[in-house]
Please model this.
Amino acid sequence: MNINLKKKSIKITLIALTFVILFFSSIIYCTNRISKEMERQLESNLTDVANQNALAIRNQLNNNYLLLQSLITELKEMPGDMRDNVMLLKGFAKSHNLKRIGYFTPDGTIYNTDEVEVNLSYREFFKRGMEGKSTITGVLSDALSSKPENVIIFSCPIYDDTSGDVNGVFCLVYDAEVFNASLQVKCFDSQGSSFAINEDGDISIAMGYDSVQLFCNLYTDILAPSKKNDGVVSSIKQLIHADTGGFGRFYIDDIEYYYYCLPMSLVNDEIKWNIFTMVPTSYLLERFKPVQNTLYLMIVFSILLFTAALTAYLLTFRSQRLAVQKLAYIDPITDGANYALFKRRLSKLRSRRGYIISMDIQHFSNISITAGGAASDEMIKKTWELVTKSIKNNELAARVRDDYFVLFLEMSDASTIALRLEQLSSGIHDIAISYQVPGIRACFGLFPMDNTVSIDDAYNKAKIGRDFAKDHHDKCYAFYNEIDHEELMKNQQLEERFDYAIANGQFELWYQPKYSTITREPVGCEALVRWRESDGSLIPPGRFIPLFEHDGYISRLDEYVFREACRQQKYWLDKGFNTYPVSINVSRATLYSNNVVEKYLGILNEYHVPAEYIQLEVLESAISGKADIAKLLETFRANGIHILMDDFGTGYSSLATLNMHCFDTLKLDKSLIDCIGEKDGETLLHYVIKMGRHLGLHITAEGVEYESQLDYLTEQKCDDIQGYFFSKPLPLRDYEKLIL
Model:
């Protein structure tokens, strides 16, 4: 029996041992598989980010070369000596953040917009240009500056149209720091970095790595200081030499990094750069820690599996609860309080005697138009820092949404409060100036409150004061109890009469014809809305359109105008009138409304109007930097509706918007047309029209009032014009007489 027990014991032991071995072998196998999969995912993520960064850089640099080649074409077409003509681009260079634009004669003498004449024949990019090669220099010391400054130069050979020989070199010169800043791309939550390097490791662009200065070298300044990087430099050089992408690891200050080196060809493969993207290994591994922790817990605490599972559940529940609380009370951009948390904190104050203040950054959209969406987020963060520094103990602040903030300031005399708000507005103005965007200020509305006043009610009244301050530029703030309530009452009456006016057809369509610059005959028109009251008097559009844009009625008015335009076009088509395309203005609010494409196409189909007779006019500010709106407009275009960019040349028109390819016609604002007769103004207008035509856009000029303007626009091959020279906006019957 003892022998049997011993055998049974051995058998059980062997089974148990086998089970343990199998168990731990499975754990080890799974761990190895997971580790390999983790590494594959890490490499995949790194590859995706490197390709995205390379695409962003390639697009920007290729766009710069398109601009360079377009300018060469224009200069060659201009009469006179190219050395003199290049001086005319001084304003163009300034508006495009260029340090200078230059033209090299074959002997190496540069004639440029700085009006400094010097021989740079020793420069390598000039030599390459005379050999017929385009060049992006990387970072160079500026030979024309009196102080140490770095530049990046885009150069391209100029060919003689007859002989085909190179007879000069044309170049765009960027300040290296400004150019580098324009290419910043966040990756891996700002933990990653990317460098554009040449085969020698010289860095031309550094994105996201604070310790790297332009003029640094990847090999000697970043990798060489660590002894752990033996062999890394040679590996990278091999990848660059082989012109293939590849992974690796290296160390900076004992911190391990993953890198991916990706070759990038520019300017029709004439220029070779490499994108070197790196990210701390710890950051990439962070997302896999829960899996690793689970494996370790299974090995070490297998007996306590239930407890570990319960603990994991509780931790997950707590994390989710904190995440929900953060979503409910923390603003995602400022990482500070939102309006809900503001109300919660204010309601808990023992004394609420003070001012509720509604704050808005006026013309904030100009930040994203001029400096990009990332700059607008940075502007919000810096504004939040300024606001929080300005408030005292027992005072509160929060971001409500977009560029709207709310503050609670303790009660004090009006002059003291006014001074604090003026200082805050001045600080916000200074932040905007740092992005080279003038005309930005903060507007404030104030309402006094105490423990008896509802927070929401006080905030709504403060918003009324804020809107009043935005419309009256004598000061940046308005106390609710000091504003013109009679004007507010008139606005409220207009709002109350809106539904009646829509239902009873009080909104009329007037038409302003567009005329061909060649035939001087009508080729289209723009539909403009007028409000005719019951007594026959007209309310000017400047009185009600800004109001409706503010209170949200503008989308309904846009739809009404669109429907009326379709109905009228159908009537004229059925009657056999000479029917021309009519363009209809669409507001930003309408573009952001739900199902706008389906709704408008439904109206078009309801009246059976061919899409070629309906066009949409959109302000550039509604398009710039907004990929979703651009995609929406592309859907309209795919259905045959032409898109017109309205008022180009006002505010902060951006050439980047022209490259979005989501519209068909460029409407030049009257402010550009009024520059006709001025040398610099005509130069700017000439290049705007030329560039528009180069991009395949139809060009319409607005606000043409004089024959001299018409003659100039005809000479510049502008397609059609709109303005008082031919016709002011006409009521329906007068316009019908024109097209009969």
User: Anything to note?
Assistant: Residues 506-739 form a domain with the TIM Barrel fold (CATH 3.20.20.450). The first strand starts at residue 100 and ends at 104. The chain has four domains: 78-180, 289-329, 339-483, 506-739.
